Amino acid sequence: MNRPAVFQIDAFGGIFFHGITPNQCWNGFACPLFTFEEALRLVALNNASDYCGHLAYDTEKDAFLFKHDQEGDEAPEVYPATLVDGKKYYGVGAFSWCWRDVSNDDQAQFSASLITELSEMKRLGMNVPDKAISLATNEAVVEDHSNMSVSDAADLLIQLAGIQ
């Protein structure tokens, strides 16, 4: 049974990624599934980093492709869409990257609550900058605001996103 989960990976230390877990493991590591939007956020972070490859979305394949930064014609890793309860998810890095399910961590839980609050605010038509979502997934920022209520912290992150 799939459940909402929060993940981290050492390549992007201090960043939470939100998705679902099918409770599968590969070599002891989590195998997350992400929404298209969360997978795109992962693309941006990966491609802006010194991580060992390039991640891109292929519209024809409806899949995310990861090409290692190596010489040669090695085929990319392909992470196609998976339907779960009628919604598409992408297992970017599942069964090949060292993801950790950190859902039980207090900061990860607060981050999940912030993401839920900010997403609902956005759904209701409020101006929620993408930067506010990014702040809500940053472990240090989340820790700094975890003594607040979720709604107050979400409001403050929106304000901070407008300043930065």
What does this structure look like?
By secondary structure, the chain is an alpha+beta fold. It has two domains: 3-101, no CATH class; 106-163, no CATH class. It is built from five helices and nine strands. Helix 2 packs across helix 5. The longest helix is centred in the last third of the chain and has 18 residues, at 106-123. It is globular. The termini are far apart. The model has no long low-confidence stretch (mean pLDDT 93).
Keyphrases for this structure?
164 residues, alpha+beta, 2 domains, 4-stranded antiparallel beta sheet, 25% strand
Compact description:
35% of the residues lie in helices and 25% in strands. It contains five helices and nine strands; from the N terminus they run ββββαβββββαααα. Helix 2 crosses helix 5 (150-163) and helix 3 (130-136) crosses helix 5 (150-163).
Structural class: alpha+beta
Quaternary state reads: single chain
Order of helices and strands: EEEEHEEEEEHHHH
Radius of gyration: 16 Å
Number of helices: 5
Assess the beta-strand content as a share of residues: 25-35%
* General form: globular
Largest sheet features: 4 strands, antiparallel
For the termini, the CA-CA separation is 40 Å
Q: Estimate nothing, just give the exact number of structural domains.
A: 2
